[in-house]
Amino acid sequence: MRRTLAMALLLVAACAGSSSSTPVPPLVPATRPPAASRDWWNGAVTYEVFVRSFKDSNGDGNGDLAGLIEKLDYLNDCNAPGSQALGVDAIWLMPIYPSPSYHGYDVLDYTEVNPGYGTLADLDRLVLEAHRRCIKVVLDWVPNHTSAQNPWFLEAQSPTSARRDWYVWNTTNPGWTQPFGSAPTWYAGGGAFFYAIFWSGMPDLNWLNPAVPAALNAAADGWLAHGVDGFRLDAVRYLVANGPGNLQEDQPQTHAALRGFAADVRSRLPNALPSAMIVGEAWADTPIIATYFGSTSASPEGDELPLNFNFPLADAVVSGVAGGFATGIAAKLDEVARTYPPGTGDAPFLTNHDQVRVATRLGAEPSRLRLAAAILLTLQGSPFIYYGEELGMQNGNCSTDECKRTPMAWDGAAKGGFTSGTPWWPFSPGMATANVATQLADPDSLLVRYRKLIQVRKGSPALTRGGTERLSTEAFGVLSFLRTEATETVLVAHNLGTSAATQGVAVTATAVEPLFVDPGASATVGSGSVSITLPPRGSGIWRLR
């Protein structure tokens, strides 16, 4: 049942989509052990929701918590076996707090619900109804900055205010620019200059003042008391700035602040309850992301952030599917295996609310979207799906962030089943087919494929929580790896090329059990190897016996 040698034997291969007609030498594959944690979030599938764009319950054109509650059965309903629910384990809500913006990342009050979304009672009802359906609720948490209209910042305008040092001030303008751009980071106000790494409307909090983590920890504790199941931490790289350039990111005091936040969250939950999900947005290269897990000597999964979004792998998957090559994905999997601390988790995804949607990047081409879904949901870690991704939702017709966050189409009618009023933003192109009703009625739709893949993943301990041993087939356009947990080993293979491919992999098995195979995919056991045949942009998942 266990593999003997992690290298592939070429039988027949299509080299379509490779950079050369001559196969490149294979990478030396790496093995990644399973994550140490056994908490609920390890291996869970999470669905990112922009509440404003999900479902409007009152006809004002904006989605709200009541509308989200109406659609929970779409996401999961563990009490109704055989339902058409997607089957996700958790939902991550983009900021639901009072805010002057449409997106909510400039927070006015960390302890309240945006009145346009509902009330605290609505949030409590959402948590209750979600938990009844086996769905955890994860809130977006914005620790780096507040709104410039936040009462804390308004009070801090006075140099004698007790909250003056809740923000970062200087008597003169240091002239720093963003480490990720060219915009200024210091702005005049309050008789001095305040620091705001993103823009003047979002001043940075001073995490070196103990009052700041105390206030934010208290607010987070309040949400845990309301039953929420964790937090997605926004912009974690920038909590403390010690100077210009790279001194504005990834500072030692930032890591200390995150360890403190994580320790507080863990301490607030009784031992009888599962721990909270804490997942960080450290948008960086793999070696930098690896530092945000913290010390594995203090905790098996790290004492800082148990999960971090894998931005480099996300880009490699989407680019690889677009170009028809597996080498970039294979290289990133190997880099993660060699760089992340042993025992730590991972949060793979395709795209999120800050990026051009995967359907737009892949030209809304069905076979590419189906392949991207299969790769994501067979990767090690805790995968995240951006709302509408399962439908092939595209970007809207503009270049601003709003067009990455357009309303969800529940049917193909003019208002998409989203609202009885006028949607807050126009729907994306293609909603006639990229809607829930149409795809639920089509057994071959992208939505049904996501549902089947999630079911297969959740039914397999190896796919849910297993480690990864990559196999050397990437030179021929095939990404293949073994996922192993305890006594189960699963063989996964994806053909990124546009022609059929047959590969032999040196693994020991007496039989293979298909868990998910595209039409034309097959696996045959030989002497010391398994021969895999895959259709163009096709996938196969087999349990080894």
Structural summary, described in words:
It is a single chain. The chain has helices at residues 51-54, 65-70, 72-75, 120-132, 151-156, 211-225, 252-268, 286-291, 311-323, 327-339, 358-361, 366-376, 436-440, 446-458, 461-465, and strands at 3-12, 31-32, 46-49, 90-93, 136-141, 169-170, 186-189, 192-195, 230-233, 277-280, 307-308, 384-386, 467-471, 478-485, 488-495, 501-507, 512-517, 522-525, 530-534, 539-544. It contains 15 helices and 20 strands. The strands form four sheets. Strands 11-10-9-5-4-3-12 form a seven-stranded parallel β-sheet. Helix 9 (311-323) packs antiparallel against helix 12 (366-376) and helix 12 runs parallel beside helix 14. 54% of the residues are buried. The protein is an alpha/beta fold. It has a domain at 151-195: Oligo-1,6-glucosidase, Domain 2 (Oligo-1,6-glucosidase, domain 2, Alpha-Beta Complex), CATH 3.90.400.
Number of helices: 15
Tell me the CATH superfamily of the domain at 151-195: Oligo-1,6-glucosidase, Domain 2
Residue share in helix: 10-25%
Strand fraction equals: 15-25%
> In what order do the strands lie side by side in the largest sheet?
11-10-9-5-4-3-12
Any guess at the CATH architecture of the domain at 151-195?
Alpha-Beta Complex
Overall geometry:
globular
- N/C terminus separation: 5 Å
Quote the CATH topology of the domain at 151-195: Oligo-1,6-glucosidase, domain 2
Poorly predicted runs of 5 or more residues: 1-22
Annotation, overall tally of beta strands: 20
**Class inferred from helices and paired strands:** alpha/beta
Mean pLDDT: 94
Main sheet? 7 strands, parallel
